[in-house]
Amino acid sequence: MSKLNFLPLFMLIAVLGCQNHQQHVQPETVEKPKKLGPFFGVVPSASPKLLAPELLASPATEYNGTFTPDGTEFFYTTDLPNNAYITFTQMNADSTWSEPRIAPFSGTYSDYDPLFSPDGNRLYFSSSRPEGDNENSKIWYVEREGKGWGNPIAVVLTGEENGEYYSSLTHSGAIYFNIWSKGDIYKAIPLDSTYTVEALPEIINKGRDKGDPFIDPNEEYLIYRGYDDTIGRGDLYITFNMDGEWTEPENLGEPINSTQHEMCPWVSQDGKLFIFASGRAADPIPAKALDPIKNINSTYNSGQLNLYYMSADFIQEMKAKHIKG
After folding, report:
1. Could you write out the three-class secondary structure of 22-72?
2. Sheet holding 194-199, edge to edge
3. Which of 33, 137, 130, 47 is nearest to 91 (CA)?
4. How far apart, in whole angstroms, are the C-alpha atoms of residue 281 and residue 5?
5. Greater confidence, 282 or 175?
6. Element (H, E) at 73
7. Is residue 147 part of a domain?
8. pLDDT at residue number 131
9. Is the pLDDT confidence value at 14 over 50?
10. 90 in a domain, yes or no?
11. pLDDT score, position 3
12. Are 306 and 277 in contact (CB under 8 A)?
């Protein structure tokens, strides 16, 4: 006999009422992954938008976003209080994307600044391995091995303990990078198994700290982060290589730069997509009843950097001003 038969009438009604309520609670809706396609399926816009917030945005700091040339893999830096990791997501066979994970060659040391070589067969990055001191950061790379990656290999550039960061490559194999302790951007030109390193011209390196250099693979332009005459904490600038001479750097202005911090520029090889990191306040996505709360929380900016995208058309528009008629 059921124990409910021995309960007083008012308690029996309460228990049955609770059971009835539980039966009518709707289960949480589980959204299926969206079929985004290459490059997350984004359509470059005239103003910055959060890049795939359902995948990338989080309470952590995200920056240094870079796609493979075909747009089917995306690597970036996830910066947490105890360490920085290179994180990645890749497109599945059904055009959905995998949940971001720490890259197979990262997770132990402080790793950051992933940037692909133009052919996509190497991923260059900055790391303080093995000492763990960011001031001694060096340039490393991993080579593709089948569907995976080989072991990290150090790139000997200056041979000094002065912090080398953000390695962007040209088709010729030259590496553009910056040295924090000196506040300048350098070019490393391959020579047999070594490199000849030279500082970029004073027209670029003058003023305060310069860094995060993204070089067009054909060396037609350079976009970098600087702190001179900024709108906010740090801005992005561009300079063009016109007949072997670099033009006076120009602030990219709004809506790219904001009153917050902008850094880590990247442009797709077809010249259509521009990605950068920004500390601006992000607009939350529309929310409705029974939405997973993680999707809503992830798009609120809490003073950290998030990844943004927009059209790269501004590059050719700015270059046109330097072309003599």
Report:
1. HHCCCCCCCCCCCCCCHHHHCCCCCCCEECCCCCCCCCCEEEEEEECCCCC
2. 164-169, 175-179, 184-191, 194-199
3. 33
4. 59
5. 175
6. strand 73-80
7. yes
8. 64
9. no
10. yes
11. 43
12. yes
Q: Which residue has the higher pLDDT, 5 or 291?
A: 291
> CATH number, domain at 276?
2.120.10.30
How far is the C-alpha of 158 from the C-alpha of 90, rounded, in Å?
A: 34
pTM for the full model?
0.85
Residue 69 φ/ψ, nearest 5 degrees? -55, -30
Which stretch of 157-161, 244-248, 285-289 has the lowest confidence by average pLDDT?
A: 285-289
Domain count, the chain: 1
Q: Which structural domain, as residue segments, surrounds residue 184?
A: 50-320
Residue 52's closest CA among 80, 84, 91, 103? 91
Distance CA 57, CA 282 (A): 10
- Widest Cα–Cα separation across the chain: 97
Give the separation between CA 266 and CA 72, rounded to whole angstroms.
Answer: 16
pLDDT at residue 147, as a whole number: 86
b/e map 264-280, b = 16+ CB within 10 Å: bbbbbbeeebbbbbbbb
Residue 60 inside a domain? The answer is yes
**Is 8 within the bounds of a domain?**
no
Six token digits for residue 95: 């055009």
Please tell me what DSSP assigns to residue 134.
G
182-190 LR contacts (CB < 8 Å, sep 24+):
183/208, 183/209, 183/210, 183/211, 184/210, 185/210, 185/211, 185/213, 185/222, 185/224, 186/157, 186/158, 188/157
Between CA 225 and CA 238 the distance in angstroms is 9
For the segment 236-242, the average pLDDT, to the nearest whole number, is 97
The CA angle 86-87-93, to the nearest 5 degrees, is: 140
Q: Which residues pair with 71 in a beta bridge?
A: none
Place of tokens 């917050």: 260
